[in-house]
Amino acid sequence: MTRIAVVGGGRIGEALIAGLREAGTPGSDIVVIEAVQARADELAKKYSILPTTLDIGCEGADVIAIAVKPQDVPAVTERIGEAISDSVHESIVVSLAAGVSTESLENKLSAGSPVVRVMPNTAMLVGQGVSAVCKGRFARDEHVEQVKTLMESVGGVVVVTEAQMDAVTAVSGSGPAYFFLLTEAMIDAGVEQGLPRDVATTLATGTAHGAGAMLAAGGDGPGQLRYNVCSPGGTTAAAIRAFEAGGLRATVADAMEAAATKSHAISQASKDDDDDDIA
Ligand SMILES: NC(=O)C1=CN([C@@H]2O[C@H](COP(=O)(O)OP(=O)(O)OC[C@H]3O[C@@H](n4cnc5c(N)ncnc54)[C@H](O)[C@@H]3O)[C@@H](O)[C@H]2O)C=CC1
Ligand SMILES: O=C(O)[C@@H]1CCC=N1
């Protein structure tokens, strides 16, 4: 049994809670600490969990998952540090925030506190997330294993180095949004081609689901799967030509570079804040 305190009940906090509940984690093992009371009450009702304060919620928690916006992480971590500093129970502090380094988290906690950083995605909500995990300076292998097991209950998990986290964020943290954007664009294009919107939505959404399932099946890779759709002289090859002419690959590379650069900029800003605290 792992007792989890989720600090921040926004989109990613809810995705984690929903995925854990769906995977069979009892509601009594999860508490949520959410600044907006109405939102805390909504989550409590929807997932049969306890909304509470940070001090009470952190007491006895095995995992304290920080799911607030990056700029709110330092203040929240400092408060968590105060709440657990005298506790005999060891809590793993897990940050789900983009661009916040394990070092800046450790700086806000008592010396030697185990910190694990996770980059999840919203597909946790339906138990189909994919997360990357890296450990802080004081986290031992068993801490990483515990967090890995927790995140495996809501999807796939890879262990990476912290230096890889900006790239991870660009690929899988932000990634669901890219597929949603493509799906939206396909629906609009279907409507332009004369389909009713509900029909275009059913077709585009079902196609995304089917293509995802084929990729996840792990047989052929994406290249071969695409070749299989491209009949010689056919419709798909004509569409792919238009995608390539429009610079799709370069656009994807630019977009992911922008995401990774932004993640890096957030970590630099949090490092600068730490340096200001020390000076
Ligand atoms: N939304 C996403 O797809 C992903 C988000 N993340 C990370 O998750 C974190 C949260 O992102 P979202 O859920 O999208 O943001 P959000 O704005 O939906 O949720 C943040 C929540 O934290 C609450 N909050 C703020 N200060 C608080 C405090 N002191 N105590 C308790 N609750 C507090 C807010 O009321 C809000 O409900 C961010 O750091 C983000 O980088 C990571 C991966 C994916
Ligand atoms: O857009 C963001 O900053 C967050 C982090 C990764 C996905 N959503």
UniProtKB/TrEMBL annotation:
<comment type="similarity">
    <text>Belongs to the pyrroline-5-carboxylate reductase family.</text>
</comment>
<keyword id="KW-0963">Cytoplasm</keyword>
<dbReference type="InterPro" id="IPR028939">
    <property type="entry name" value="P5C_Rdtase_cat_N"/>
</dbReference>
<keyword id="KW-0560">Oxidoreductase</keyword>
<dbReference type="GO" id="GO:0004735">
    <property type="term" value="F:pyrroline-5-carboxylate reductase activity"/>
</dbReference>
<feature type="domain" description="Pyrroline-5-carboxylate reductase dimerisation">
    <location>
        <begin position="162"/>
        <end position="264"/>
    </location>
</feature>
<protein>
    <recommendedName>
        <fullName>Pyrroline-5-carboxylate reductase</fullName>
        <ecNumber>1.5.1.2</ecNumber>
    </recommendedName>
</protein>
<comment type="pathway">
    <text>Amino-acid biosynthesis; L-proline biosynthesis; L-proline from L-glutamate 5-semialdehyde: step 1/1.</text>
</comment>
<dbReference type="Pfam" id="PF03807">
    <property type="entry name" value="F420_oxidored"/>
</dbReference>
<keyword id="KW-0641">Proline biosynthesis</keyword>
<comment type="function">
    <text>Catalyzes the reduction of 1-pyrroline-5-carboxylate (PCA) to L-proline.</text>
</comment>
<dbReference type="InterPro" id="IPR036291">
    <property type="entry name" value="NAD(P)-bd_dom_sf"/>
</dbReference>
<dbReference type="InterPro" id="IPR053790">
    <property type="entry name" value="P5CR-like_CS"/>
</dbReference>
<dbReference type="InterPro" id="IPR008927">
    <property type="entry name" value="6-PGluconate_DH-like_C_sf"/>
</dbReference>
<dbReference type="InterPro" id="IPR000304">
    <property type="entry name" value="Pyrroline-COOH_reductase"/>
</dbReference>
<dbReference type="InterPro" id="IPR029036">
    <property type="entry name" value="P5CR_dimer"/>
</dbReference>
<dbReference type="Pfam" id="PF14748">
    <property type="entry name" value="P5CR_dimer"/>
</dbReference>
<keyword id="KW-0028">Amino-acid biosynthesis</keyword>
<keyword id="KW-0521">NADP</keyword>
<feature type="domain" description="Pyrroline-5-carboxylate reductase catalytic N-terminal">
    <location>
        <begin position="3"/>
        <end position="99"/>
    </location>
</feature>
